[in-house]
Amino acid sequence: MRKIELLSPAKDIECGMAAINHGADAIYIGAQKFGARAAAGNSTSDIEKLAKYAHKYNANVYVTVNTILKDSEIENARRLITELYEAGADALIVQDYSILKMDIPPIALHSSTQIDTRDKEKAMFLEKAGFSQIVVARELPLDEIREIHESVNVPIEAFIHGALCVSYSGQCYLSQAIAGRSANRGECSQPCRMAYTLTDADGRTIIKDKYLLSLKDMDRSRSIKEMIEAGVSSFKIEGRLKSASYVKNVTAYYRQIFDEILEGNDTWSKSSAGKVYLNFTPDPSKSFRRGSTEYLLHGDKENIASPMTQKSTGEELGIVTYIGRNHFEIKTDKQINNGDGLCFFNESGELIGLRANTVEVNKIFLDNSIENIRTLRMLKKGMKVNRNSDRAFEKILSQDNSAARKISVDVRIKDCNGGITIEAECEDGVKAEVRITGDFEPARNAQMALDNLKANISKTGDTIYEVIGVDIDINEPKFIPNSIIAEKRRELTNALDTARTASHKRDTRRAEMPGCAYPYAKIGYEGNVNNQLAKAFLEEHGATDVEDSFELKARKNVPLMTCRHCIKRIAGLCAKNGYQADYNLKHHIKAAAQEPLYIHNDTGTRLRLEFDCKKCEMTIYKD
Q1: Residues 421 and 391 in one domain
Q2: 345: domain range?
């Protein structure tokens, strides 16, 4: 039976525990150094605490050590990996091939998205090199994911939700080139979220000051079953810089989807234990997101861009029906709360934000600031209003009891050598037992004594367990004080905790397989080879021409970003498939275009665009 894993992000230990409580089968978190999100590092002691907590649910903790390393960092990285293994980490997520040559403990290795696995040849190499799980590029459609799955015998991981990099992962050098901050070293300056002006070869402005490289956020919730059928086993939510409330909401949302798919299924099963009970209704539109896209999963017909804003647009509330001096009214079936953050696109296509001061049903009153007066003047009847901050929803998510995750337990109580034995078995087969012995009087009312014993043993309170069945096989019930039963119940749950921790099995590093050869003899700067150990590994595996990384040796007139997003498409300039311009953007297109095209911003950066229409790819150069 294939195990299906919901893999959630964790900025810190708080987010990690929230992810587990809200249904994650595994979480991924950054160590104190060498993670591709430099702002999301965590101490080894926190990772150890998180691993102990997760392992009670048989959930896994994967640690990102996925930057490219300098020669001077190799020994520090080796020591850190050893510490992470001793702390109980289940696997490392890595990019740098130097790690495969280090003298480290036998910890399992998972490929980082930064390795950029787009074809079966790369996947087959990673499997033979010893990787236990392989994440495929976000850009791959279902048929290409299926092809990779059928070519290897290790689990395939794929992204299903969250922010999107416009470039193929690991192949973006724009931040390094224009800001000296390497995305492959966790320091991306996010130039793709900046506003750019599009000009043509004659210097004419085609589109002015729009977010031409910014994408919508991924949401593949409608296609989870198709992805399982295509061979995906681990489903990854992006967001190691996101808040705990985001992690709670999105994890819980997908947990419900997976539970519905897996219930009663004899081919796929959940990879961890426990049932999640929620005190809210998950809704990803209530957490930060720039619209939504399935992002090329079913081909390239979908509009994946968000050119009008790089900010969260939230959930749609309704349509403006009336505009007053200090308020407006909308037609909606949703409850709006005092303090909610609202937004709308004005007639120029700009996203305008406002905050509801007080709300009377569908009447939204603003305070009397000059800014709000100007905002009301921008509103027109018929405009759509969204909510990008739901105050009541966030209040629920901020509480510790927004969810409870319980492991179901069956209990059997039976006679045993002058006492009774209480045996407990968890849903996944983990067992523990305790005994009650003593000189107890026979119960005056046998049935009442048995009912009392059953009721007290079932009181698991704030533990991680819920008793779903109690089978009692006692010939002569005794009167046992409730205080003794309660003490033994606590002993039993503690024994289950110990047994569950002991039963958790970590994967170990897979041995390299015979015939492990890198699929390409020449490795350019895009191979991100940043140290001599990685270079030696690749040369030992068949590479004959290995270049230094872009970070080690800057280059001129080379691709800084290659992506499936195309500015010609959203501007309505694509002749290949007859795409229409983005609905909001088309009102800003000022002229026909003569190639080559350029984008530039107010920092002085000017970038040249090239298009491979056969591959549907756009490449960006620094001009």
Answers
A1: no
A2: 315-397
Contacts of 603 (CB under 8 A, 6+ apart): 178, 194
Contact 118, 136 (CB under 8 A): yes
What is the Cα–Cα distance from 327 to 322, expressed in whole angstroms? 9
Mapped onto helix, strand or coil, the DSSP state of residue 249 is: helix
- Strand pairing partners for 423? 412, 433
What is the count of structural domains for the chain? Answer: 4
Q: Of 286, 302, 335, which residue sits at a domain end?
A: 286
Q: CATH number for the domain including 123?
A: 3.20.20.70
Using CA atoms, how far apart are residues 560 and 557, in angstroms rounded to an integer?
9
Residue 87 lies in a domain: yes
Q: One-letter amino acid identity for 58? A: N
Instruction: Supply φ then ψ for residue 373, to 5 degrees.
Output: -60, -45
End residue of a domain, out of 397, 416, 431 = 397
Asked if residue 497 and residue 524 are part of one domain, the reply reads: no
Instruction: List 470's β-bridge partners, or say none.
Output: 411
Cα gap 153→132, rounded to integer Å: 9
Q: Are residue 393 and residue 426 in the same domain, yes or no?
A: no
Q: How far is CA 299 from CA 154, 168, 305, 356, 582, in A?
A: 25, 16, 15, 40, 18
Do 134 and 59 share a structural domain?
Answer: yes
Judge contact between 531 and 98, C-beta under 8 A. yes
Mark whether 343 and 258 lie in a shared domain.
Answer: no
CA distance 62 to 240: 12
Q: Are residues 466 and 383 in the same domain?
A: no
Beta bridge partners of 345: 351
Are residues 392 and 480 both part of a single domain?
no
0.90 cut: is pTM over it? yes
Give the model's confidence band at 17: pLDDT under 50 very low, under 70 low, under 90 confident, else very high.
very high
Tell me whether residue 441 is exposed, middle or buried, using C-beta atoms within 10 angstroms of its C-beta: 0 to 12, 13 to 18, 19 or more: exposed
Using the CB atoms, write b or e for 584-604: b if 16+ within 10 Å.
Answer: bbeebbeeebeeebbbebeee
Question: Residue 236's closest CA among 457, 394, 26, 426?
Answer: 26
pLDDT tens digits, 577-590: 555 666 566 666 66
Q: Are 194 and 166 in contact (CB under 8 A)?
A: no
Query: What CATH number has the domain bearing residue 341?
Result: 2.40.10
What average pLDDT does this structure show over 559-587? 78
Q: Are residues 469 and 496 in the same domain?
A: yes
